[in-house]
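Morning. Coffee machine broken again, so started the prediction first thing and wrote up yesterday's gels while waiting. Chain of 315 residues, entered below exactly as on the submission form.
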Amino acid sequence: MKVGNRSMQIIKETTEFMLPGKSAVAIGKFDGIHLGHQKLLEKITEQKKNGLLAVVFTFSPAPEAFFSGKETKGLMSIEEKRAAFKKAGIDILIEFPLNKETAATEPERFVEEYLVGKLQAAFIAAGTDLSFGKKGAGDAALLKRMAESSGYRVELIEKVSVAGEEVSSTIVREAVEKGDMEKAQALLGVPYSINGIVSHGRKLGRKMGMPTLNLLPAEEKLLPPNGVYYSRVLLAGKRYPGISNVGYKPTVSDTCVMGVETYLYAFDEDAYGREITVELLGFKRPEMKFEGTEALKEQVQRDIEEGAAFHKKVK
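Came back before lunch.
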């Protein structure tokens, strides 16, 4: 399977694969691709100059979802994660199927059969908190112990810290769930974003003279608390300042479909059907239900004015 203009092979829903040459492998869950994950990706893409394939080995479904039996929202949708790996220069993405059989794989067999056998790993990068194989018994120490006899080199990446706090997907998730987009951005190195296709809404914003772009996030995407956020929209390589509502739009809708609706300050094109990325920069106010559309319009106008001041300041 090929993704985008630059090819990235995606191997999914199978354990039967064999790479065509030696590889540099990064192993992990990669939820959010935070600053620590980025160091892992840099380590393996550096090895491309030595003729190695840059390979990411991750799991599907996520281990937390599989072992808990509950659906969990991710910091990235599947498509967002794939796009990020492609942008980072990854050659091959393994979305390894996690099921009862594969989860019971002994760690030593996992290394021998998959990392050494099928991936032909010559270089492996992993975090110091890595766990894999049956009951998570495989760890960084096991990788190091098997390295010499198996013919690969291991580089362990220490935790990255921001403001004295170790960066992890859990910490990023907590920031997003609180609506602390500034902290999320500091941990990710980029704004927390939502990607998707612009869809038709009720066109109420257009009727009020404030047209908006409507986006329906992927079901597996973790969203911050419902409310209004200062934002930017990336469209066709350009960024536009905006202000976004995340939620159900309670004043004008009785449906329970989550959406992201964004007003842009310097944009008057038809964007329906086009792919956009909404970057959430900061929380402004919670989502509210108004007495009617006139009261809503007045509040939205205030939001737009205050948003313009925000963007002028941060610019």
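The first strand starts at residue 9 and ends at 12. Going to sketch it on the whiteboard this afternoon.
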